[in-house]
Amino acid sequence: MVFDVLGWEAGTRIDIAVHAGTVVVRRARGGEYRLNARRLLHIPVAVRRWCCLGERELVLVRAVPELSALVICGQERLDRALPDPRRLVDAARAVGVHVGGSGGGSSDRAVQAGGAVSRPAAGSAGSGSGRRG
Question: Is 61 left (phi over 0), alpha (psi -120 to 50) or beta?
C-alpha cells in the first residue's frame, strides 16, 4: 500500500491542500486530519469539489517519500496534463514492426501482453543474456 512507502500508520496526522487542481496530502504533526483505523484517507467534499473529483472517481496517486507526501490527480487534471490519447493511439507503432528494413535481429524481442522489453547489455553480442523484466 502507498502508505507503507511513506511509513504512515493509522492515526498519522496529515494536512490536505490543493494546488493547480491536484490534492496534496502531507504528514503534519499538528495536521487537522488523520488516517483512519483502516489506514484509509478521507478527502473532504469541499476539496473534492475544488479539484473536480467525482464520487468514486478513479485517481492517480503518487507517493513522494522524500517529502512525506502524496499527490492525487483526478481524471480532469490528467486529461489536461497528458498528451491527447487519440493522437497517441493513432501515432503508435506496434512493437516488433521494423520500418525501413532494419531486419530485427537477436537484440529485438517481441512484447507479450503485460511483459516488458529487455535488450542485451552492451558487449553481450546478443547472446540472450539480457534479463527479462
Answer: beta
User: For residue 60, what is its C-alpha cell?
Assistant: 492517480
Report yes or no: 25 and 13 within 8 Å, Cβ to Cβ: no
- The length of the chain is 133
Q: Enter the pTM of the model.
A: 0.62
Q: Residue 73 is placed in which grid cell?
A: 490527480
Contacts of 96 by beta carbon, 8 Å cutoff, 6+ apart:
104, 108, 109, 110, 111
The answer to whether 126 and 120 are in contact (CB under 8 A) is yes
Tell me how crowded residue 102 is: count the other CB atoms within 10 A of its CB.
9
Percent over 70 (pLDDT), the chain: 72
pLDDT, tens digit, for every residue of 52-111? 898 888 899 999 999 999 999 998 888 888 888 888 888 888 887 555 555 555 444 444
* Residue 110 CB partners (closer than 8 Å, separation 6+): 95, 96
Long-range interactions of 14-19: CB distance < 8 A, separation 24+: 14/41, 16/43, 16/44, 16/47, 18/47, 18/50, 18/51
